[in-house]
Amino acid sequence: MAFCSKCGSSVTEGVAFCPQCGAPMGAAAAPPPPPGAAWAPAPAAAVATSSGLQENVAGMLCYLVGWITGIIFLLIDKRPFVRFHAAQSIVVFGFLNLLRIVLAFGFFGVHYYGIFSFWALLSMLISLVTLVAWIVLMVFAYQGKRYEVPGAAGVAKSIAGSTV
Predict the structure, then answer these.
(1) Radius of gyration of the chain (CA)
(2) What is the Cα–Cα distance from 105 to 103, expressed in whole angstroms?
(3) Residue 8's pLDDT band (boundaries 50, 70, 90)?
(4) Which of 40, 54, 156, 158 has its C-alpha lying 20 to 30 A from 32's C-alpha?
(5) What is the mean pLDDT of residues 87-104?
(6) Cα-based distances in Å from 154 to 66, 114, 159
(7) Would you say 58 and 80 are in contact if contact means Cβ atoms under 8 Å apart?
(8) Residue 78 DSSP code
């Protein structure tokens, strides 16, 4: 009987992937220790990190509430992938929020209907860009991809303090 090296479940001999977790089956791993056995270190993938989340989930959560969760994850997580996404969240959504605030103040000084509708359309366009960026960045981070937003990635790298 073979055991999965990732999750420890028993697998049939000769299968290519674990039926429980989907990990590729290479060389068979030793069975997990029986309950009550002496302590053994956890596999590298299961070791808890500073935030206690998997790297891709933490990267996705950096974008959940925009720049606010970006700041939180930048402070609590030290992994380069998560820190990059946290910093990029701060830069991208911080800029878009600041732009919307500036446009909101522009509405107060507008007296002509044509200019007012231009400001309103511009604000709606920025809202749409924010929504699309939010969805795309969360999906890419969850997939474990490091998508770099043009213009924001350089600033994000310097904030995160990583060269990767």
Answers:
(1) 23
(2) 5
(3) confident
(4) 54
(5) 90
(6) 18, 38, 9
(7) no
(8) -
